[in-house]
Amino acid sequence: MQSLLEIVALHATKQPDKRCIVDKTCEVSYSEYWRIVQSIASFLKAKGLKQGDRVVVQALQSISFVATAMGIQLAGGIFVPIEQSAKDERVEEIAKETEARIVIRTRPVRYDADFVNLNEIVELADKVVVVKDELVFPVEDDIAEILFTTGTTGDSKGIVLSHRSIVSVAQNVAYGVEMKSNNVELIPVPVSHSYGLRSYYASMYIGSSVVLMDSLVFLERFFTAIEEYGVTSLALVPAAIEMILKLSKNRLGDYSAQLDYVQSGSAALSEDLKGELCRLLPDSRLYNFYGSTEAGRCCVIDYQKDTGKISCIGKPSHNATVCIVDKEGLAIDSSREQVGLLAVSGGMNMNCYWRDLDATSRVLVDGKVITSDLAYIEDEYVYYVGRESDVINVGGKKVIPTEIENIANQHKSVSECICSKTKDALMGQVPKLYVVIKEGHDFCPREITDFLRMHLENYKVPATIEQLEALPRTYNGKLDRKALA
Q1: 391-484 is classed CATH 3.40.50.300
Q2: What pLDDT was estimated at residue 129?
Q3: pTM of the predicted model, to two decimals?
Q4: Over the stretch 35-90, which tens digit does the pLDDT of each residue have?
Q5: What is the tens place of the pLDDT at every residue in 335-387?
Q6: What angle do CA 210, 213, 215 make, to 5 degrees?
Q7: Is there a contact between 160 and 150 (Cβ–Cβ < 8 Å)?
Q8: CB proximity list for 155: less than 8 A, separation 6 or greater
Q9: Between β-strands 299-302 and 27-29, what pairing exists: parallel, antiparallel or unpaired?
Q10: Residue 73 burial (CB < 10 Å; 0-12/13-18/19+)?
């Protein structure tokens, strides 16, 4: 099978009546879903979509959105998702950059392309006669999608991914969590972002069921969905897990026997959250994925089983091979004392950055995605140390913020923390620690400093400690050091 499209078409033949996807308004079987995908593909071809044309689509947590994505690809186009809340200017910017042939959204933008209302596309497509002979499955090397990302490390980049990449990352997820064909996964995180989108891909690969949910603002709907649809797994980001546990206390534990597993990704999961989930769901497998849009879901750990491995991101996933390299890209023997850059090989890797040869050549070297993450490998497990750009140069000595954070988080009064660099007249740079204090505890910086001195060399101990009500985070829940710079 060279594409996820072929796999879904096969499921539609072998299990036509099985529930495929549920959204807030309806649900469809595999045969119904595949019929919608074919109709949308024929509709888009009738509008003039040609092989390789880009189509910008507003991401809703809906059947119409995910079916439109597949319809674009079946018609030979390239799927370019944008966030549901993206401003008109941002949509126009991406449409212009990709020279989009069609924009599919709930309202038009000032850009010279055909416009289709996403809320009406299924109804419009139903009026088109499907000519199946005109619909040809793509081959694995064809470009499938361009995912634009604005992470914590720089300007927005368009990451070009092939159909091979989509199938490979779906396998990484499905095999990584030991997904079963009768699984029902609840995805209440945006499918415009790679984490949510790839969770959906894995279910389509296996032929299981997906429940899409807008958000966790109305938490009661979350628990109602678990019960109503017999949900057996959850795909969450750390910020969502934190919200669920904070607002519902121990309620998630009521579903311990029902939930086969919970997977998380997009950002690191704190040791406190890991511990709380292990306590509430002792019978469930609990996974955290590491990866990027450029190299999707390349490491995974079941922290219910592999306990006590602080900062460990697990072992390479199904299609991934990892190694540690130096700044020249040469492989090194890594250890706690000898860290390097994490490099990833495998079918899930990106083709390139959209029309950016310089950025591509820096990151994609000999088929490997060279990340900017410092790491080391010990007993086949990969340990994340921090981003290269976050390293603090204290008078010529290198300090990695996560080392300080891992110790500080063990203090009895610290709920969570983040370490950043600040200027110093004598040393050039010194660490500064920002902490959120647990409820019922007082903020005592001297006590925290004394605790850190017991575990760290003097030059690694933060010069100052500041209390915050909450730590700054990016849109996908990652701690945002830039906001503290």
Answers
A1: no
A2: 84
A3: 0.87
A4: 999 999 999 999 999 999 999 999 999 999 999 999 999 999 999 999 888 889 99
A5: 988 899 999 999 999 999 999 999 999 999 999 999 999 999 999 999 998 88
A6: 145
A7: no
A8: none
A9: unpaired
A10: buried
For residue 43, give the nearest of 101, 107, 119, 124 by alpha carbon.
124
Tell me the C-alpha to C-alpha distance, in Å, between residue 253 and each of 185, 276, 280, 377. 17, 10, 4, 34
Query: 133 is written with which tokens?
Result: 């002979």
- Looking at residue 450, the DSSP 8-state letter turns out to be H
Q: What is the dihedral of CA 474, 477, 479, 481, to 10 degrees?
A: -10
421 Cβ contact partners less than 8 Å away, ≥ 6 residues apart? 390, 392, 401, 429, 430, 431, 432, 485
Going from N- to C-terminal start, the domains of the chain cover 1-9+24-139, 160-388, 391-484
Rounded Cα gap, residues 269 and 274, in angstroms: 7
Which CATH architecture describes the domain 1-9+24-139? 3-Layer(aba) Sandwich (3.40)
Residue 149 exposed, middle or buried by CB count within 10 Å (0-12, 13-18, 19+): middle
Beta strand spans in 216-279 (E): 233-236, 261-264
